[in-house]
Amino acid sequence: MRILGIDPGSETTGWGVIDGDGPRYSLVECGAIRAASGQKFPARLLKISNALEEIIQRHNPQACAIEDGFLATNVKVTLKLGQVRGVAMLVAERAALEVHEYSPRLVKQTVVGHGNAEKFQVQQMVKTLLSLKNVPEPHDAADALAVAICHFHHACFAQRILAAQAGTKLTSANLTRRRASR
To answer: Where along the chain do its domains lie?
Structure first.
């Protein structure tokens, strides 16, 4: 499974693509989309949209994991973050990707082991989990990779549950057929 992780930001949007097969995953590419703070906000949104479209076209992921918003102390910051998230979701949906949202706390809990982890702890675990020599730069890219890793773990868990349920249903159906044939 190839996953695009996105850490939305109005000036810097981190992104990272990982490939996973079974219990292992690896880095494909990561980076950040930077928009000049002096640029008009709609122009920044367009730049983010165009860059994400190009990344999706280049890497062809099956799913997109986006960090969910959080309530910042500044309402304007929260609203702008929501607009960036909306653009990212629209681009992913337009590309027919599965879109999944994860709270910052769940990402930290999944990657580090506790939801109150510090940013440097997340970065170090991303480095370790992807067997990298260095922490991915900029930190927005490392955060996006953490979101992708979070989705990978949760998607694999969901697949195991579905497989187990399918096995149970199959077994029940087989038992019913055996009883009927007696």
So the answer is: 2-181
Beta strands in 22-165 (DSSP E): 24-34, 63-67, 98-102
Annotated catalytic residue within 54, 93, 140, 143? 140
- Mean pLDDT value of segment 89-112: 95
- Classified as helix, coil or strand, 96 is coil
Residue 67 annotated as catalytic: yes
Overall pTM > 0.90: no
pLDDT digits (tens, 9 = 90+) for 42-68: 999 999 999 999 999 999 999 999 998
Give the DSSP letter of residue 22: T
**Which residue out of 21, 67, 68, 118 is catalytically annotated?**
67
CATH label, 2-181, candidates 3.30.420.10, 2.40.50.140, 3.30.70.270, 3.50.50.60: 3.30.420.10
Q: What's the angle, vertex CA 26, arms to CA 21 and CA 28, rounded to 5?
A: 115
Token digits of residue 123: 């970065």
The model's pLDDT over 23-33, given as tens digits with 9 standing for 90+, comes to 788 999 999 99
Task: Report how far residue 53's alpha carbon sits from residue 91's, in angstroms, rounded to the nearest whole number.
Answer: 6
Give yes or no for a contact between 85 and 100, defined as CB atoms under 8 angstroms apart: no
Q: Catalytic site residue 140? A: yes
The C-alpha atoms of residue 102 and residue 76 are separated, in whole angstroms, by: 22
